[in-house]
Design brief:
By secondary structure, this protein is mainly β. Strands 2, 4, 5, 6, 9, 10 and 11 form a 7-stranded mixed β-sheet that branches. Strands 1-3-8-7 form a 4-stranded antiparallel β-sheet, with no helix packed on it. The chain is 0% helix and 48% strand. The model has no long low-confidence stretch (mean pLDDT 96).
């Protein structure tokens, strides 16, 4: 059974860093695109970053230059390194998979993890 599990969330001060992990089980990540999507309370889901099966990366304008997405196919895991975090980035962060290998719009990811909470506060 295809499963995604996020980890690495927590409480961090403004300007701090966190690295999120998205571990896959039940399938091989090699042929999937993996995206990171966040949702803050009372707000719509927002696509943050995505990496295709061939390693192309995409970022929202709000995180470009501060976040880095990467994949380790040997570990069947995708990472999101987040630097210079801001309070307004407090949200539940989800990873999601697309079996097309390409990054779709947020609603078209086929499999989702349960999310990990990121809180940016002093």
């Amino acid at each position: 059974q295809l499963q995604l599990v996020e980890s690495g969330g927590g409480l961090v001060q403004p300007g701090g860093s966190l690295r999120l992990s998205c571990a896959a089980s039940g399938f091989t990540l090699d042929y999937y695109a993996i995206g990171w999507i966040r949702q803050a309370p009372g707000k719509e889901r927002e696509g943050v970053s995505c990496i295709t099966s061939d390693g192309s990366t995409y970022y929202s304008d709000s995180v470009k230059g501060r976040f880095t997405i990467s994949r380790d196919n040997a570990k069947n895991t995708v990472y999101l390194q987040m630097n210079s975090l801001k309070p307004e980035e407090t949200a539940v962060y989800y990873c999601a998979a697309s079996n097309t290998g390409y990054c779709p719009v947020t609603a078209d990811f086929s499999s989702w993890g349960q999310g990990t909470q990121v809180t940016v506060s002093s």
